[in-house]
């Protein structure tokens, strides 16, 4: 991963790397048959668990306006839920095969998973509606949605981001590329109607799936790719390489 450190920090990072390597070897030697995922050495292998937690932590602040829109008992919330109901979800669906999923992104050192999850779900429904698969700008949400409750590379929340797209629209990744750092909003790009893939008002609503409600999740996935949050705090996830990840930790984060 071409990680380089100065002489003062090098020994410290090597000790963390050694611990990450030992954790990987221990998991392989243990032959834990009930694990459906694999751990190995990743670009996070020289990070402390606390540093990794800071990177992946989700800011759960939802702006008051968004909270009113999506409240489960609000008029808008009830209307959206009824509209999005699927009475008989199919037994299986693969939106990758349907051409509605863009390539996996890497957020690098910017804690903007909320923006990536939002853009990728929006890319999915955009393709389903228009038959055009276009990568939307993660960087626009990182730079421009602070007034909607997000905090750039320090975290954010999907519903804040959907609200931002609803009111401000969004341009393509090629028009406003990702740089893995928060910066000043480039309004000359975001307000250019010729660059907007979605104009203000094109996104008309969204619905949060109730945590642990498999039926609602199936109904959502039956219609489009969904955005999701998972617990990335356990040390194993820092070294996740593939497979179906299941968190055993009892943290609420």
Question: Quick summary of this structure?
Answer:
This protein has 253 residues and is mainly alpha-helical. 41% of the residues lie in helices and 5% in strands.
Q: Could you walk me through the main structural features you see in this protein, from its secondary elements to its overall organization?
A:
- By secondary structure, the chain is mainly α.
- The protein folds into two domains: 7-56 and 232-243, no CATH class; 64-223, Cysteine proteinases (Cathepsin B, Chain A), CATH 3.90.70.10.
- It contains ten helices and four strands; from the N terminus they run αβααααααβαβααβ.
- The chain has helices at 7-30, 49-56, 64-70, 75-84, 113-130, 138-144, 158-168, 187-190, 214-223, 235-238, and strands at residues 37-39, 170-171, 196-198, 240-243.
- A two-stranded antiparallel sheet has the order 1-4. Strands 2-3 form a two-stranded antiparallel ribbon.
- α5 crosses α6 and α5 (113-130) crosses α7 (158-168).
- The chain is globular and about 55 Å long.
- The mean pLDDT is 82.
Keywords:
Cathepsin B, Chain A, 2 domains, mainly alpha, two-stranded antiparallel ribbon, globular, 253 residues, 5% strand, single chain
Summarize model confidence as the mean pLDDT: 82
Strand content range: under 5%
Structural class: mainly alpha
Main β sheet profile: 2 strands, antiparallel
CATH topology of the largest domain: Cathepsin B, Chain A
Helix count equals: 10
Going by CATH, the architecture of the largest domain would be Alpha-Beta Complex
Helix content: 40-55%
Please write the CATH class name of the largest domain: Alpha Beta
> What's the total count of β strands?
4
**Full CATH superfamily name of the largest domain:** Cysteine proteinases
Low-confidence stretches: none
Indicate the overall shape. Answer: globular
Number of domains: 2
GO molecular function: cysteine-type peptidase activity
Keywords: Zymogen
Organism: Perkinsus marinus (strain ATCC 50983 / TXsc)
InterPro entries: Papain-like_cys_pep_sf (IPR038765), Pept_cys_AS (IPR000169), Peptidase_C1A (IPR013128), Peptidase_C1A_C (IPR000668), Peptidase_C1A_papain-like (IPR039417)
């Amino acid at each position: 991963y071409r990680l380089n450190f100065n002489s003062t920090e090098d020994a410290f990072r090597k000790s963390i790397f050694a611990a990450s390597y030992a954790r990987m070897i221990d998991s392989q030697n243990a032959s834990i048959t009930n694990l459906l995922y694999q751990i190995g050495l990743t670009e996070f292998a020289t990070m402390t668990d606390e540093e990794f937690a800071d990177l992946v932590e989700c800011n759960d602040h939802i702006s008051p306006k968004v909270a009113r829109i999506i409240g489960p008992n609000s008029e808008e919330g009830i209307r959206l839920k009824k509209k999005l109901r699927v009475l008989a979800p199919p037994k299986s669906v693969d939106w990758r095969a349907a051409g509605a999923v863009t390539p996996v992104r890497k957020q690098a050192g910017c804690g903007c998973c909320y923006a990536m999850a939002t853009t990728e779900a929006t890319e999915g429904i955009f393709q389903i509606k228009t038959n055009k698969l276009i990568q939307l700008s993660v960087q626009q949400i990182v730079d421009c949605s602070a007034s909607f409750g997000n905090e750039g590379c320090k975290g954010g929340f999907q519903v804040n981001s959907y609200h931002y797209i609803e009111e401000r629209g969004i341009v393509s990744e090629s028009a406003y590329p990702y740089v893995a750092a928060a910066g000043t909003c480039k309004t000359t790009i975001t307000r250019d109607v010729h660059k907007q893939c979605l104009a203000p008002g094109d996104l008309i609503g969204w619905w949060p799936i109730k945590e642990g409600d498999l039926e609602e999740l199936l109904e959502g996935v039956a219609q489009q790719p969904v955005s999701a949050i998972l617990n990335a705090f356990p040390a194993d996830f820092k070294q996740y390489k593939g497979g179906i990840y299941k968190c055993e930790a009892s943290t609420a984060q």
